[in-house]
Design goal:
Elements lengths: L1 H13 L9 E2 L7 E6 L6 E5 L2 E5 L7 E3 L10 E6 L5 E5 L2 E5 L7 E2 L10 E8 L2 E6 L2 E6 L6 E2 L9 E7 L2 E6 L2 E6 L6 E4 L2 E8 L2 E7 L11 E4 L7 E2 L9 E6 L4 E5 L5 E3 L7 E2 L8 E7 L2 E6 L10 E5 L20 E3 L3 E3 L7 E7 L9 E2 L4 E3 L3 E9 L8 E7 H4 L21 E6 L4 E6 L5 E8 L2 E6 L6 E9 L2 E9 L2
Parallel strand pairs: 29-35
Antiparallel strand pairs: 1-28, 2-3, 3-4, 4-5, 6-7, 7-8, 8-9, 10-11, 11-12, 12-13, 14-15, 15-16, 16-17, 18-19, 19-20, 20-21, 22-23, 23-24, 24-25, 26-27, 27-28, 30-33, 31-32, 31-34, 34-35, 36-39, 37-38, 37-40, 40-41
């Protein structure tokens, strides 16, 4: 009953806002997905659903249940993490398990831990070390020779919701608040005194998904931020009443926030403006994860709400421009289409792009991208860039579903263009135009049309924005099917 009331409150707040990006359900229906992680080396997705660990190698077309311990079938999984080397770590009620092989066999790595504790949070302070949050405290270890060491000075026994390492500090989110400690020596201090369910960081800012109750209306909020390593906090999310935050994810400018009901909130400009996440009015986003250019979110299942729960993906959310090693991007957005199509890719400078069809991991022996890829049936395309110095990018997968072959409901024509990217942008923004004789306009916040192109033909459209002043704009597409608007940020 409480969740229904909170969802109704959220609906009242979200009634007049909309988020144009398209979420696609990719499986684990009727399950609560509480943790998600992705392998950047092959694009595989790992998800904790109803306390079990699942794997998909093809963007949700199939899911495999992974058995962590044949001798302990009752093991419940709380958290999953995949590190930069592709090792999979699973936090459970029987300690922590690891897999670093292709057949996904797991082994317990509990040496040095007290009676295997509940491991509910995992993070990598650096490429060689691992830290876990448990009901017996925080422990750290070298990855290659697991020997856990307690890291608990001044830390009261609390069950962690999240453990974050950022700028040589640990942050531990619990139901009683947030605790902070230097990473070189355990000395925990409480810096936030309300329920904190998730943490994220960007530059000098720490974000906390919170649930604050009470009569002080000005303090109620689902997201708080700190600019000074947790010494002080301020509410960042809109004041929508007693609605709590469950998950938070961020990049340079954008913030995604999962809340009680209403799906959640999205900000394109670090909290200056908010709109709905558009998962659905009764959905609750519990976790986020990035995989190449895509964003994934796991949701909560409610028995009384049809189609709730499961894992969702949103393609073409992230650009590779800010990656140390840029990856190829899908100029043609992955998703569901009515008919066959030709998929166009971007080619990073000084690289060759290779791709695989059907789920294999691409390498230099795979198909070389020279022209748009013809897709006439449901196809998973994985792409990789290999540079002149032999360095390789991460794998960026995209699933293209052809509805006539699969019987799936296709995305409406205008929704094919609903993912302009990159956003924010500096020089260009890409758009898929689904119809001939389209009109494209860019409008500033005063209502002035600062860019216009008429009679645009269907296909991929590259819109120059380098002449625009930095700020927030509206990109408008008009076709015979109707009109669609999106907000985007032109950054310096």
């Amino acid at each position: 009953m409480k969740k229904i009331v909170l969802a109704i409150i959220s609906l009242l707040f979200y009634a007049n806002v909309s988020h144009s990006a398209l979420w696609i359900k990719i499986g684990l229906e009727d399950k609560t997905v509480s943790s998600v992680a992705c392998n950047s080396q092959n694009g595989n997705i790992y998800a904790v659903a109803d306390n079990l660990l699942y794997l998909s190698e093809n963007d949700g077309l199939d899911w495999t249940l992974l058995n962590l311990d044949v001798n302990q079938p009752w093991v419940h999984v709380y958290r999953v993490l995949v590190d930069a080397k592709g090792r999979i770590y699973a936090g459970t009620n029987n300690g922590i398990y690891c897999s670093d092989n292709a057949d996904h066999s797991f082994r317990a790595i509990n040496t040095g831990l007290p009676h295997p504790p509940n491991v509910t949070a995992i993070c990598c302070p650096d490429i060689n070390s691992l830290a876990i949050g448990t009901n017996a405290g925080v422990f750290i270890s070298d990855k290659d020779s697991i020997q856990w060491t307690a890291f608990n000075r001044n830390l009261p026994e609390r069950t962690p919701n999240q453990l974050l390492c950022h700028r040589e500090r640990f942050y531990l989110a619990t139901n009683s608040g947030i605790y902070v400690s230097p990473t070189d020596s355990a000395h925990w201090e409480q810096c936030f005194f309300n329920v904190a369910r998730d943490l994220a960081a960007q530059d000098a800012v720490i974000y906390a998904a919170t649930h604050i109750s009470g009569s002080d209306y000005d303090q109620l909020g689902a997201l708080y931020q700190s600019f000074n390593s947790g010494s002080s906090w301020e509410r960042l999310s809109p004041n929508e009443g007693n609605v709590g935050g469950h998950a938070v994810f961020c990049d340079e400018n954008r913030i995604w926030l999962g809340t009680d009901g209403g799906g959640g909130l999205y900000s394109p400009d670090r909290g200056a403006y908010w709109e709905t996440l558009n998962l659905g009015p009764w959905f609750t986003a519990l976790t986020f994860a990035q995989r190449g250019s895509a964003l994934l979110t796991g949701t909560e299942f409610y028995k009384h709400i049809d189609d709730s729960g499961g894992l969702y993906i949103q393609y073409n959310v992230f650009s590779s421009n800010r990656q140390e090693i840029p990856f190829p991007e899908f100029i043609t957005c992955p998703g569901a289409y009515n008919n066959r199509l030709y998929v166009e890719l971007s080619i990073p400078a000084n690289s060759k792009v290779y791709y695989s069809l059907g789920g294999g991991t691409p390498d230099s022996s795979s198909l070389l991208y020279l022209e748009p890829i013809k897709v006439d049936s449901t196809t998973l395309i994985k792409v990789i860039a290999i540079y002149e110095d032999k360095t390789t990018s991460i794998v960026n997968p995209g699933l293209f579903k052809i509805s006539k072959e699969t019987g799936l409901k296709a995305i409406p024509e205008l929704d094919h263009a609903a993912l302009p990217y990159p956003n924010p942008c500096s020089d260009f923004i890409n758009l898929t135009v689904p119809d001939v004789n389209a009109n494209i306009s860019v409008i500033n916040l005063t209502g002035q049309v600062v860019y216009s192109d008429q009679a645009v033909q269907s296909g991929n459209y590259r819109l120059p924005v380098h002449a625009l002043k930095p700020g927030l704009y509206i990109l408008q597409l008009r076709t015979a099917a109707g009109k669609k608007d999106w907000k985007f940020i032109r950054q310096p």
